[in-house]
Each structure stands twice: as C-alpha cells, then as structure tokens.
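Appendix C reproduces, verbatim, an entry submitted by the partner laboratory led by Prof. M.T., so that reviewers can inspect both the input and the predicted structure.
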Amino acid sequence: MIDDFLNFGLGGVAFQAFHQRVLSTSSTASAKLSCFVAAFLILVFAIPPVLLGAAAASTDWNQTTYGSPSPYERGEAAVTLPITLQHLTPSFISIIGIGCIAAAVMSSADSVLLSAASVFTTNIYKNVLRPQASEKENQWVVRVSVLVMGVIGTSLTMLNNSIIIFWFLGTEVAYILVFPELLCVLFFNISNGYGAIMGVLTPLMLKLLSGDPLLGLEPVLHFPGCTLEDGVYVQYAPVKTISMLSAIAAILLFSYLASVLFNKGVLPEKWDVFQVKAQHSPVPLSPVGGAIEEKE
C-alpha cells in the first residue's frame, strides 16, 4: 500500500501537465496556492465517481433496461459510468453527463497530443536531430507528430485490455523514471547526461526483472516476500519504490564517476558527448543548497 501511495503521490509530481500549469501562473504565490487548492479539490472531485460506482455495484440490473448480468460480470466494468448514466438516470441527465464526459476526454486527448508533439519537436528534433531547423520546419514536425501520436493512441484502444492499464503504466513510468531525474536535476549539481542515461536503464531493467502483472511479465528477480499464489508469483516488496531509489543512486553515482573520469583526463575529452568537463568539475554529492562552490 505504501508503494502505491508513493507511486501515485510522487509520480504525479513528474507529470508535464502539472508543471505546465504551475509554470503558467502569474507568480510563485499563485503557483503554491493552486497546488494546495488542487490537493483539496481532487479529493472532492473523487466523491461523485465513488458514489456512482457504489450505485452501480448495488443496483439490481435485472430491473433496468440494461438487464442481467451486471456490467462487471459482462466484462464491461471499464464503461460502468456511461452505462450507469444511460440506464439509471433520466434521458436529459444521461445526455448532459455523457456529453460532459466526451468533452473532458477530448480536452485531455488534445492536451496530451499537443504536449507529446511539442516535447518531441523541442527536446529531440530541434535540440538533437536538426538544431539548424527553421521555424516553419519545426511547425511541420509538430503537425506530423500530432498525427503520428493520434494514430498510435487510437491503435492502443483496439487492444483487448482496458485503456486504464496505460494510465497505471504511465504513472509508474513517471514515478520510476521521470521523478528521479527531476529530483536530481533540481537538487544535485553533480547530475549530468551520463547519470541520466543510467538513471533510466537501471530502474527499467530492475522493474522488468521484477515482473509486471499489467504486462504479463513473470518475475525473474524475486524480492523478499515474493510468494507463489495460484501459480503466479506475487511481489509484496515495494518494487516500484526500490526501482525509484535505484534510479536516484544510479544518476548520482554515474554522474560523479563520469565527471571525475573526464575532468581528471582518465577518459579523452573527445568522448565527452555531454560536455561534462565544460560544465563543471566534480564536487561532493550534496544538495544544491549546500553544494560547495567551485573556485575559479
């Protein structure tokens, strides 16, 4: 339970949508206020879905136009909300409710497509693949990226598994891979590109070796408490948190090693792809606030 709590709590901090809205505020005070207000409102907004789910679970569906068996028994638990609105509410409420759901989904899909396209264009295409690209070329890359992301997203809906699986996987990726990178970049001066790469590879391999029931992966690495239940190994250890901590350790360790090796001339400067030697010399692994300033 602690593993899931940290996963959803800290994983959300690494979402781009969160920083996109915080950075768009007019002042630091507004950003802080919006975060505290959102933390309270998200609990309030969770009440209606819980009530609708409780109503759907306690309903005698045989007495409705939907009939028996229940949505859960038919394998339609993922669409319980529209089914509940359609069969348990008046027509005008059903139309308004489903219209609101469709508008919210379209809004979220639109923002996700634009975010993914802008991140790819700015961080990968413009900065890595073609730094000399013109503004018009970048605009076309954004348009093509939106189209490609849309096709990929639409194809994922054709899978047999529920689309909610990708939401859980996205949260795990944010917690295990993105959150450690964000934490180290903000609070540790020693962090560099070499550590960032190992901070992705290390927890990714650890998580895959630990198994993932959402992806149907059997565990190869058995942590303490891993038991065999109904022919399936279940990990009771906080695998996601262990993977996240391993990412932080890998980022700091390999960043420090790379900085030492290049600055002391152990490795030739021509191999320094991320230009660590030009950025800074190695300093002790301390937070930014207490980092030792380098002497010029």
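The chain is about 65% helix and 0% strand. Additional entries are available on request from the coordinating office.
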